[in-house]
Amino acid sequence: MFKYIKWEMKSLFKHYTKLLMIIGIILLLMLIMPFRSENAINMGALFAFILLIFALFIGMFLFGTKKVIDTFKKPTFMLESMIAFPPYKILLAKYFLAFILNIVCVILLFICFFIIIWRLDSFPNAIEFILKAFSISNIVDVLPAMFDLFIVSIFFTSSVTCFFVLIKSWFPTAKGISIIAVVMWYICMIFLSSIVAAFALNGWIYRLFIIGISALFYYFTVLLIENKLEVY
What we know:
The protein has one domain (2-227). Helices cover 79% and strands 0% of the residues. It contains seven helices and no strands.
């Protein structure tokens, strides 16, 4: 499975090398160019920087999940790597890849915000404010938040993928599958939220509940892949 993840990462890096270079150039320009200058180059760079922030904000929720869903739009998705892995391993690998892609977006978004803070000459005060706001006093306090980010990312990817594959298995050639899947996913999230509220789940009980539901979505997705989707 880890060989498959490594293969996927190399493939993604090849496809997105130019995009990463463009992002790096935009970030570099924001570091060296004055914010308040009104020349055309600076205004263009600032506009690109604002667009980048919006794109990264959306990407940290959707980018990884979209890459997983795009896989199932091709009938040969299980053969795309030419590696003989069973569906459950490939799907699990793709979930971890989705998390990695989302984390990359999160890191780049934080870099954008830190550039803004740095350029506004309030970096030390801003860092202190962030630490107090999230009750962070040492590195140990960061670990639960990172774990929560991980399980939420996996839950989102596993749930959306499950509904997409379900609709795909029912209507393999229909258009608008994504919209139907989103509606079904939203209804399911309302139901799950009512369960959380009814039983007042919080802390580690809530985390275990999310992990368990994610595992169920993963299990049903594997069953659908093996029994309903045509692979050739």
